[in-house]
């Protein structure tokens, strides 16, 4: 597993935090809407399985996939698993212009442990900032991020960090 340096880690924390904590302050208060071709609900186990062009929205949060499985035993959200070719995640953050976007073959949100797993050709971006890897793991409780390459050694971890343009402008003004 490749551990990422602190500057990349900070960017990833900002990118992935919305996946569990909802970026826009108003998102948490919005109703959840799920559209799918079909659904199977099991009240006994608390598992809901949505299949076929599934779109899950709550405020600015949008999850899309071929299948979304929601584990909510006894009415308490435990985890959400989104799969697709690829599955996608998008959300707006408070006071930030660019939306956070993620894609992966599988996304797993574990609420109790505050973990997010993106696997199978995973990528997270916001504006021009980007992180790609076969597996990206984010622990919101510990604010740690790790990414790994694929087993075939071809898909190494790839990160693009765009310089902060506002800082560059401040530096240029200070030099004048």
Commentary on this structure:
With 176 residues, the protein is mainly β. The chain has one domain (2-175): Lipopolysaccharide (LPS) transport protein A like domain (lipopolysaccharide transport protein A fold, Sandwich), CATH 2.60.450. Helices cover 15% and strands 51% of the residues. Strands 1, 2, 3, 4, 5, 6, 7, 8, 9, 10 and 11 form an eleven-stranded antiparallel sheet that branches. Strand 7 (100-110) and strand 8 (115-126) form a beta hairpin. It starts with a strand and ends with a helix.
Strand content: over 45%
Q: From N to C, what is the helix and strand string?
A: EHHEEEEEEEEEEH
How many beta-strand elements? 11
The 3D shape can be described as globular
Structural class: mainly beta
Profile the largest sheet. Answer: 11 strands, antiparallel
CATH topology descriptor: lipopolysaccharide transport protein A fold
Any low-confidence stretches, pLDDT <50, length ≥5?
Answer: 1-22
CATH architecture: Sandwich
Helix % is 10-25%
Task: Please indicate the count of domains.
Answer: 1
Q: Please tell me how large the radius of gyration is.
A: 17 Å
Amino- and carboxy-terminal Cα gap: 45 Å
> How many helix segments?
3
Could you name the CATH class? Mainly Beta
Task: Report the mean per-residue pLDDT as an integer.
Answer: 80
Q: Report the CATH superfamily.
A: Lipopolysaccharide (LPS) transport protein A like domain
């Amino acid at each position: 597993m490749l551990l990422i340096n602190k500057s990349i880690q900070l960017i990833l924390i900002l990118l992935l935090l919305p996946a569990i904590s909802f970026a826009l302050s108003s998102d948490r208060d919005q109703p959840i809407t799920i559209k799918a071709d079909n659904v199977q609900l099991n009240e006994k186990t608390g598992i809901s399985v949505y299949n076929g062009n599934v779109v899950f929205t709550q405020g600015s949060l949008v999850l899309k996939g071929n299948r979304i499985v929601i584990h909510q035993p006894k009415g308490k959200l435990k985890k959400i698993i989104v799969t697709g070719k690829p599955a996608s995640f998008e959300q707006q953050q408070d006071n930030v212009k660019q939306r956070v976007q993620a894609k992966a073959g599988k996304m797993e949100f574990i609420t109790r442990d505050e973990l997010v797993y993106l696997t199978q050709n995973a990528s997270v971006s916001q504006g021009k900032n980007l992180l790609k890897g076969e597996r990206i793991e984010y622990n919101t409780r510990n604010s740690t991020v790790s990414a790994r390459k694929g087993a075939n050694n071809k898909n190494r971890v790839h990160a693009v960090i765009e310089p902060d343009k506002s800082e560059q402008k401040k530096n240029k003004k200070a030099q004048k």
